[in-house]
Amino acid sequence: MIPSRFVSLWPLPALLAALLVPWLPGMPAFWVTLANYTGISAIVAIGLVVLTGIGGMTSFGQATILGLGAYTTAVLSKYYDVSPWLGLPAGLVVTAAGAALLGAITVRLSGHYLALGTIAWSVGLYYTFANLDLLGRNDGIPGIPPLSILDVKLLDGRASFSVIWIGVILAALATNNLLDSRAGRAIRALRGGSVAAASFGVDTPRARLLAFVYAALLAGSAGWLYAHMQRSVNPTPFGFYPSIQYLLMTVIGGAAHVPGALLGAILVTTVNDRLQDILPRLFGARGNYETIVFGMLLIAVLQWAPNGLWPLIARVRPRRRPIRPDAARLPLRTMPPAGSALLEVSGLRRSFGGLVAVNDVDFGLAAGEIVGLIGPNGAGKSTTFNLVTGVDTPNAGRVRFQGRDITGLPARGIAEAGIARTFQHVKLVPTMSVIENVAIGAHLRGHASAIAGLLRLDRAEDARLYAEAARQLVRVGLAEAADRPATALPLGQQRIVEIARALCLDPVLLLLDEPAAGLRHHEKAELAALLRRLRAEGVSILLVEHDMEFVMGLVDRLVVMDFGTKLAEGPAEQVRQDPRVIEAYLGSVA
Amino acid sequence: MDSTILLILLQDGAVNGAIYALLALSLVLVFAVTRVIYVAQGEFVAYGALTYAALDGGQLPGSVWLLCGLGVAAFIAGLWQGRGQTDAGLLLRLGLETVLLPGAVALLAIWLAPLKPGMLVEVALTLAIVTPMSPLLYRIAFQPLADAPVLVLLIAAVALHLALTGLGLVFFGPEGFRAPAFSEAILTVGPLTIPGQALWIGGLTLALMVALFGFFGRTLTGKALRATAVNRLGARLVGIPTERAGLIAFALAGFIGALSGVLIVPLTTVYYDSGFMIGLRGFTAAIIGGLGSYPGAVLAAVLVGVAESFSSFWASAFKEVIVFTAIIPVLLWRSLRHGSTEEEE
Description:
The structure holds two protein chains of two kinds.
Chain A: H1 4-7, H2 11-20, H3 29-54, H4 62-79, H5 84-106, H6 111-131, E1 148-149, E2 152-153, H7 157-179, H8 182-189, H9 194-199, H10 204-230, H11 240-253, H12 258-283, H13 289-304, H14 310-313, E3 341-352, E4 355-366, E5 370-374, H15 381-388, E6 396-401, E7 404-405, H16 411-417, E8 419-421, H17 434-440, H18 450-454, H19 459-476, H20 491-503, E9 509-513, H21 521-536, E10 540-545, H22 548-552, E11 557-562, E12 565-571, H23 572-577, H24 579-586
Parallel strand pairs in A: 5-10, 5-11, 8-9, 9-10
Antiparallel strand pairs in A: 1-2, 3-4, 3-6, 6-7, 11-12
Helix pairs in contact in A: 2-7, 3-7, 3-10, 3-11, 3-12, 4-5, 4-6, 4-10, 5-6, 5-10, 7-10, 8-10, 8-17, 11-12, 11-13, 17-19, 17-20, 19-20
Chain B: H1 3-34, H2 41-56, H3 63-81, H4 88-112, H5 119-130, H6 133-142, H7 150-172, E1 186-189, E2 192-195, H8 196-218, H9 220-230, H10 232-237, H11 242-264, H12 274-288, H13 294-314, H14 319-325, H15 327-338
Antiparallel strand pairs in B: 1-2
């Protein structure tokens, strides 16, 4: 395998190639033109990687966004004598505004609403382009000035090649940077389920919006390149069909990988060109045969290679991450003194229709304690847990944490208050390594913005976040697994990874949802030992379980629930003798 | 604008709205049962319209060959999906539904088309040719993806739309067609003159809705479809074949699409690619209705129809823009009302 420090140097030879390749003697002009279109498509497709492959959303309107960027610079440079170079920032402002508007109203809804919104806006904007006098209606705007450097006009296709492919390299670099930053991890965390992401303080609608706007910005800059290369714009390439072609590139190449977008762009652009040439000769001029081929191809790829071609060619694995143990530690919370009241739940109630799942439940937890919330299936434990963690809202009752009322706060607010949790059904991001997953837990302890991430201004902070993640992995005893794909670990270790992720929040209270479920005997023993060790280090823990054996030797106190009500509360041994508890677990002795 | 124009626009909108309502209903149905957002449904409108127009002209419609081709493709896809399976009954059923049925319809069409058998037979033949394509496409495109996320299904549906539009051009050619109205009668009510075709459209829409209501409320198949819509796994556990449910939902959508096409081709010239824009309006209505509510979709469809007729009166060039951006405030409202939704994969 090639050492990673060489891999990270790829931009240099790529840059050299972008500047030199078109000028190679004997390079057919036709190939240069094709490569220019490929480059523009690749930029759009890279944006779709972030949106579709990584963020799990999609857009059927990327070509239209490209059109926004293209028309903006066309109007400014042709009619207002603005320098073509200023058309880029202007186009980006317009595309960002449009995307933010459409994004803001759809990111809170299920993913497909965004996609549907983009179909509607794609069709709507297309007809706007085709009917506005300012934009030249269906004829568009001809005679757009070319880009120029020091009064030298870049009229030659080979000059465009260099500009476009430098753009592709920048887009790929920026995207890699973004995905490797705190904001990018938030986008990637969406794939592990938004509840999990929100439980570590990720503002999930905002992460979605970021992905959408970022993809739009790349499409907008591609539009700027397109306008000045083509030197004329008309509505045709900005409609619904070209938009689907960009999506096709991303899906064929491998929706979750930046090199896949490049591969997809090359394949689709070349094949499209060939098909437009060959098919009419085979079948006669009547028909858009390439749309038939592409439509069927897209369905075939979705059925047979849903992850695209790139993972079939290259071995995709999370990259090894060097840790800087010398990075300054992140600031720590001041922990409450042992024995002080931490969590106070009073009169908590939640009903679903006629069923009262949690019926006026009270219990408390003091700092430094491990408390087990137990009960048979259907006792209301999980509902109680959801009410405390902000996943669900109670109908009545209060949850106080460190004296502060946190009832009804969203999951993100609960995380901010200092409560971290794990999940009964492990929610790790499959495409991320163990340490990257754990680093998501430290999301709230970092502050770097997406822009800082894009420009690599966040490295010092990111090193601290990763050093913290590494420290927590050492703490739970999984340091060697740091660079393995998270879901390659056995279930027991995945649960431990979740605990490390929770610890990364620097929590005052750790909430564990059935941590022993599905574990083998020795795994349970290791988990119990870990929890004891954490308690000794001052962590307070509330765990929901129904495995009595696991809980008995571990907890300081037990809260027993049955049919939504609290049956008993107290030290484990005492609760075990309680006849009502015995009855609930074993049935009444008639 | 005087009240006569107002009434005419409202009437126009209501007639179009009725068609959109039918489309919206079937979109909601297909989405509920299979989670597919059936973007390609619009193509069935175009196919239905062009098939009917061809039959009306005594021609054998190109869609007959498309039907046969899809049947063979679905047969091969079915054999591939069921490889290693030796249940003769299933194989027989596959052959029956993918090869024999389309073949029989094709022979019937070849025999009847030159005879110009009259409106009623032509409509029935159109429905018989176009409707089966939809479940065939379900077998080919969606059945292997049955457990994929909504987003993947949506991308597949858009891809299918792309392919079907291209196929439409191949099998119907680039020319637009129009067919004579079902009835030339004109009803005068006060200042309004209602053409017979509008009455046909309104009447058939209502009849179809009542029929659907009865189907879902009273028949076992209808109830099974509803159960599948609520919970696929649960439905499977109680013995409902959910793939069958998908086939039925797609067949209904194909039927409704083809019928809508037959109903509108006397009103407007239909081209091979006209279906998308018509389907998209049904779609807008379905989304405004929340993709889950049948009455909501119908109401929204009528609103879309009226919005369309008014915007084509005031700003005809921006008709499409107005109709499709209408979706945005609705999404905003839904977003503010619902808050966040969790979508697990």
